[in-house]
Structure formats: C-alpha cells, structure tokens
Amino acid sequence: MSKVLDDRKYSDSHEWVKVDGDVATIGISDYAQHALGNIVYVDMPETGDEVNQGDDFGAVESVKAASDLISPVSGEVIEVNEELVDKPELINEDAFGNWIIKVKLSDPSELDKLMDADSYKKLCEA
Hints:
There is one protein chain. This protein is an alpha+beta fold. The chain is built from four helices and nine strands; from the N terminus they run βββαβββββααβα.
C-alpha cells in the first residue's frame, strides 16, 4: 500500500496539496510515483504563471510513461522546485518530501473539492 499523509488534500489525478495560509504546495502522491516508475524528467511552469484547477501545469516523465500534472487549485505559481531539474528521481525517493510547485491560492474554496486522506486511500485501493 502506498503511503498517504493525513495533512494533505488529494486530487483524483494523484496530486497532493499541503496548504499553509494562502500558499498551496503541490506534488504527486506516493501512489503516482510508484505507478510511473523511475522518473527522468519533470516539466514545470515558470514562476509568475497562472494555473487553474483541473488544467495541466506540466508533466512527469518516467522510463515507461509520461503523465500530465493537473493543478488541484487555481492561483499564481510563486515557486518551482529547481532541485527537480537536475534530480527528478527525488520524487521517487520521497514523493511527499519533494514538492513540484507552490501556488498562491486565488480561490481557497476549491480545496473543498479535493479528497481527504481517507477518501484518497479508497481511490487508490479501487
């Protein structure tokens, strides 16, 4: 069973969100990195870009597949994880410790549309 942390919200496309004030830190779940296999590249937006809930903001590529990253929230990208440019495999090592982008939320109510840890566990088991 993949690891699921209780302090996050989850999307059905396997991204996680951790909120601190009006900033959402976004990454992919442990389940997603297991499904992808060895990650070799992470395509990320630029700082200052706008992302919208449900739209893709980049992609994660592994040796066996590429998967779009779907934004679980809307807002402005205020930081990208530059470490992943040279070391995309960090996501495989710790999917929850290695975030992809940080977004200043434009509509915090969107968080209500995301799953809690228990709901996400059920999705992964299905």
